Amino acid sequence: MKHPTLFSMQFIMEENNYMNKIKTIELFAGVGGFRLGLNKVKNKDKNFEVVWSNQWEPSTKVQHASDIYCARFGFENHSNENICEVDTQEIPDHDLLVGGFPCQDYSVASTLKNSHGIIGKKGVLWWEIYRILLEKKDKSPKYLLLENVDRLLKSPASQRGRDFAIILSSLNALGYSVEWRVINASEYGMPQRRRRVFIFASKKGTNAYNTLSDNGYEEVINTQGVFAQTFPIKNIKTQNILTGKLSDNLVDITENFNKKKPKQNAFLDAGYMINGTYYTSKIEVDYKEKHTVLGDFLEDEKKIPDEFYINDEELKKWHYQKGAKSIQRIHKTTGHKYLYTEGSMGFPDALDKPSRTIITGEGGASASRFKHVVLVNGKHRRLIPLELERLNMFPDNHTFGVTDTKRAFLMGNALVVGIVEQLGHTILKMDT
Questions:
Q1: pLDDT tens digits, residue range 64-89?
Q2: Which of 5, 109, 199, 251 is a Cys-bridge partner for 146, taking CB atoms 3.0 to 4.6 Å apart?
Q3: Is 205 found in the same domain as 132?
Q4: Is the pTM of this model over 0.70?
Q5: Are residues 321 and 281 in the same domain?
Q6: Active site positions, annotated
């Protein structure tokens, strides 16, 4: 193997210095799924550079996710404190803000003249994103790339879509357009059936914003938008696209959005919003490339620790958990008796299909309805943390250093890295 000469090393350093970088901050960073995806994206002229990150878990003294993040990416420019207590001036100016924020109640509590007319609920992390955008003013980022559970589009149940309408309207007031798409990673060749909504916002004046402004809504959803370019869908006809106008008063949205038809979904799996008007539709995936399956990502059985195998006695408990059942229960408050039923689940997990969604309770040896169990060489076993990492498209042993149960928990909270990587290529292409 040839070693680089001093000249070539100097050239590489100079090339990196002159490369145009999309400066990025990663909020609610977890163990760095967004960063891993964006780090894979570059061309000869441009790449993404994470200039600041924040990860803080309020419910635990030991900050496992933050510790792993620093072990993999370094301590420099990383914040392990409550984002609600971080002064915006401490956050470097940036081009792209990314993060997987929690699905919470985003309703506006009251009005306040010196806060653009709103007060978001304390501890609700969407309002921390909003605060950063608001306080950065003309230095707010060009783009946002966010991830959430897909029920965000339907919450709360009493006013379906209200919370997402608040997000859209508040971004509109700050001069952003917004695109969204519910993506099941397995439908685009990735190894896990994980449905999440991804949200891309672009600031007025960017190419991405102008694309939405200059094209009709059918073109945007079908071919021209960031998600349409990245994750192709079958053509949607105009009559199947719903449209609506958002109030610019967040208190009004909080109190009145979708009150007349509260059970009807205002926002479907794909859509975009610009200048307060949104367009949305159901979609059908159009993917013809190779699909990957659970069996592709299993470790060599010789390397599986004994404790992950399930003996015959324990296997009975797993069969019970995975099987159909009807159980009479009593409501703790009313004393009312009711029948709790569950259907059966496929057991063991099919090796010739993508895996089911990894959940935070994946770890531990106790029998569970939702944990993965595979049958290999006539033996049943649970998935090891390394295999869970692979199903999220993380590097092997990315979460090494904490207990196996905690590693599984961290993967249950993570995203599928390949989705971010593919979106990153499109963002890079559009940012010219």
A1: 999 999 999 999 999 999 999 999 99
A2: 199
A3: yes
A4: yes
A5: no
A6: 103
